[in-house]
Amino acid sequence: MFSFASKTNNPNTKLGWNDRLGYGMGNFGMAWVNGMMSAFLMKYLTDVSLVDAGVVSAIIAISKLFDGVSDLIMGRIVDGTHSKFGKARVWLLRMCIPMAIATVLLFSVPSGMTGVIKYIYVFILYNLVNAVFYTAMFVPYNSLISLSTTDSYEHGMLGNISMIFQTIANICMNTFFMAMVVKFSGAAEPYMAEAQKGWTMATIIVGVIIIVSAIICVCGTKERTAAQAENGEKPKDEVSAGKALKSLFTNRYWLSMIFAMFVIFFIIVMYSAGAIYYCADVLGDYALYTPVNNALSIAQFATMFFTPFFMKKFGKHMTYMVGLVGMGLGFLGTGFAGTNVALLVLFNALKGIGLGAAGGMAFGMVADTLEYGEWKDGFKTVGMGNAAISAAQKLGLGIGQVVLGWILAFGGYDGAASVQSESAKAAISVIYNWLPVGMIVVTFFVMLTYKLDKELPDIQKELEERHNQK
Known about the structure:
The protein is mainly alpha-helical. It has a single domain, classed as Growth Hormone, Chain: A. Helices cover 77% and strands 0% of the residues. It is built from 16 helices and no strands. It has helices at 17-39, 41-48, 53-79, 89-106, 115-148, 152-185, 196-220, 241-249, 252-282, 289-303, 307-314, 316-337, 341-377, 382-410, 422-447, 452-469. Helix 1 (17-39) crosses helix 6 (152-185), helix 5 crosses helix 13 (341-377) and helix 9 (252-282) packs parallel to helix 14. The chain is globular. The two termini are 32 Å apart. Residues 227-237 have low confidence and may be disordered.
């Protein structure tokens, strides 16, 4: 298969920009799905398919029982995969087309479906997209950071590049997706039953993006850190699932990142899905979603071009902590801004700066925790380690949607109403502004115990000596 990745097989190599950009493209396609699930799914189901918000929350809550299990299963599969494409990239190739098809079907609930049949359809498609196909792509994709190189700076750089491409995808989605829905449907607004054709057509375009992005990622990356990664040989010392899990759950730094990942993705639901409701129902104009959320995404995008310099000077952890502070201040600001659109844009930009700093470091920090685990226990659990991180992210997104639905239902939100009650608007404000502030404060104190940046140089030196002795 055609490849434009760097030719070197040295596991300690500094990566070229072809490798970095190739890796980033993998997240560009998946970020469309991630963004649509967190920002649009609840609103689509409540207002276009006319599913009760409480029922949607129950469906998502029940689905979480499958989600964490599927991530761990996929992590184990990645650790046990031996193919000519390595451990991870082969799964991007195998799963991109099923993922695209399932996403289209999830956002194409047949208008003739009613009652229990509709709920069963949503339940099945939601789990296929989230618990099966997204898992089977995202766990291998995250594992590629550790499989591409052992260099700690490159871990941070790849994580940052991944988030840059995710942010580009978010900007494109914020700007064009709703416009595509309206254009293809001919409806006056995207959130009405008559707009269903537009949702289907727009999601088909997203499906093409998923497939093309996955193929580019496979062609632009190379797995170097597993000795048998590229030739399909099976190692003699594979670690059992029980031993791998014990290693992970006694890794204090990895546990900190599990919690931090959960919180960040919980908050993503609050500001992305919450923004749809806030603009449409509090500000009274769904079209404001584009400038309000793009202020966050564009600021995040710009910030991540500078985070590698801060990372090099101050380390991943300090950059991450400064990002948390920026996010917290941004949410406080939008809470006090009320319906002042100019201030909402300003404070969303501050959220974006914080998210750019924290999000840009997160995946590189996860890869570092797996280096720490190898030093501590004598083996690296790349697939399982990234699987649980993926589970934490999806739990954050899923539980975020559940909480969002419960708060909306508690506030008396009515998807069929042209104007929402004051209690519904208050519930939307809690979702969009105040709940994220509390979550960020807790995360800040948890991450104060993270000291791996200082310990890692000595750990990596010892690991290199071990490898040379083998």
